[in-house]
Amino acid sequence: MTSRIALTFERAHAQGERALIPYLTAGFPRLSETVGLLRALERGGADIIELGVPFSDPIADGPTIQASCAESLLQGTTLAAVLEMVREFRRESQVPIVLFGAYNPFLRYGLERLAHDASAAGADALLIPDLPVDEGEEAAAIIRGSGLDLVFLVAPTTPLERKRLICSKTSGFVYYISVKGVTGARESITFELEQPLAELRSVTTLPIAVGFGIATPAQAAAVGRLADGVIVGSALVKLVGEHAGSPDLPAKVEQYMRAMKEPLRGSSSPAALTQPLDKPTS
User: Is the pTM of this model over 0.70?
Assistant: First the structure.
């Protein structure tokens, strides 16, 4: 059966769109608000949602997401609570959910138990940034055995042959890290994507989503000219933190999503890699 993630990219491609993939830290700013924020993301145009499982020791997170994870843990967020959030959201939505988290809490929960429970709750994939592709065979078999995709990341420094290996092991989509370093919104940055994405497309037919550093509609538009999906994380988490405790937080999140989604509607084909990439504005 075709997965929700695959169907989402197929639908976006058929409509001439790029998928918008926001990242939200589960339990931030409060446990009780996460499902409402997930719904706000959907109303604003999110096509796939990465739901971050908070962990005390950051893997690739910059200061914004680190702080949100620390606050979420103080709120008492557990992996079981995150799965309950997914279950509640899934009762009213078909937007795919990717659980994004470090290997430690997943392993502590139990991989077989996690794969079963995540699938039963309605999650669609796991993304584990500290799981090396060449050491993940056992985990991949368990995760995919429960019908979940396992998404791996490709860095700007990844050689072509390793890109080939990673792409052969990933499913759902390939996550390409747009810049060196950790997550974090960058107001002024030039994304060098033509050559690395061309290499990726030479070794995979999977959709390619690009993340790290994308914060503005102009940046989303620039990345969306070449990628199949645009991932927005730190800028969204920062927005959530700035409006924490405000009754208009869901409306602010929805408004931001609408602004980020608009330039991804009807953009040029991501296969047109010979076109120059616009420099994003600050």
Answer: yes
Distance spanning both ends of the chain, measured CA to CA: 43
Q: Specify which residues 24 forms β-bridges with.
A: 51
Cα separation, 144 vs 134, in Å, equals 16
Question: Does the active-site annotation cover 50?
Answer: yes
Query: Which residue is catalytic, options 61, 124, 228, 254?
Result: 61
- CATH assignment of 4-264? 3.20.20.70
User: Which strands form 174-177's sheet, in the order they lie side by side?
Assistant: 149-151, 125-127, 97-100, 49-52, 19-25, 229-232, 208-211, 174-177, 153-154
Closest Cα to residue 258, out of 281, 232, 280?
232
Locate the DSSP E strands across the chain: 19-25, 49-52, 97-100, 125-127, 149-151, 153-154, 174-177, 208-211, 229-232
Active site annotation includes 248 = no
- The 10s digit of each residue's pLDDT in 33-74 is 999 999 999 999 999 999 999 998 877 677 899 999 999 999
Q: What per-residue confidence (pLDDT) applies to 59?
A: 74
| Omega prior to 159 cis, within 30 of 0 | no
Q: What is the pLDDT of residues 266-282, one digit of tens each?
A: 754 444 333 333 333 32
Catalytic residue among 50, 71, 124, 228: 50
